Amino acid sequence: MVEEKTAFNIYRHLLIHRVFVSLKGEQDYSIDFNTVLNECSRGDLKAQEHLFKQYYGYVMSIALRFSSCRDNALEITNDSFLKIFRNIGSHQIDKEFKAWVRRIVVNTALDYYRREKKHLVEISIDEASDESEDESVLDKLDAEGIIRLLNSLPVIYRYTFTLFEIEGFSHDEIAQQLSISTSTSRSNLTRAKKMLRQMILTLYQYEGSV
Questions:
Q1: Structural element, H or E, at residue 73
Q2: What are phi and psi of 94, to 5 degrees?
Q3: Considering the chain, what is the average pLDDT of its residues?
Q4: Distance in angstroms (rounded) separating the CA atoms of residues 32 and 25
Q5: In terms of Cα–Cα distance, which of 61, 42, 58 is closest to 97?
Q6: What is the pLDDT of residue 204?
Q7: Is 69 exposed, middle or buried (0-12, 13-18, 19+ CB in 10 A)?
Q8: Rounded percentage of the chain residues whose pLDDT exceeds 70
Q9: Number of DSSP helices (H) and strands (E) in the chain, helices first
């Protein structure tokens, strides 16, 4: 997969390690996941490579929900793995590792939003405030469909929708993370759902005409 190779470029020292250093006799990290985490915290390249491959798809799937294209998702994915490896020693062994990773990816996506915010076009709250919500919009989409349509939303709508509907953030939490008001968060969600509903209807009409 092209994007996986691109993402792995930030760990090219791992690839060099695989080519020039014999791995014969190294531990099989698939036996004990706690061993993988412990060795990653010590900077073991084989363990880091194992963890990267195991969690790449999961991290990328979260990054895609926040991104308008795969290049942006790759940047979020790369930054997330850097943070994972840098902070893996702080993970508590009695806590679910996948949830810890998920939190890092979401926070990394929010960091990406804050860096790029100055390039975004702000949307007036008045434009979105009088739209009615459609709570059934998600029922018409599968996972791939959601990601595909989310990629088409304006970034502020995409982040609001993803944080609220998928990640379970409250509007107060979204407002704090995106530096907007709670009412704006609610309006952005309403507008995002309306746009998604319109895209779904357009898609169904197109498929029905084929």
A1: helix 70-87
A2: -90, 0
A3: 78
A4: 16
A5: 58
A6: 67
A7: exposed
A8: 70
A9: 11, 0
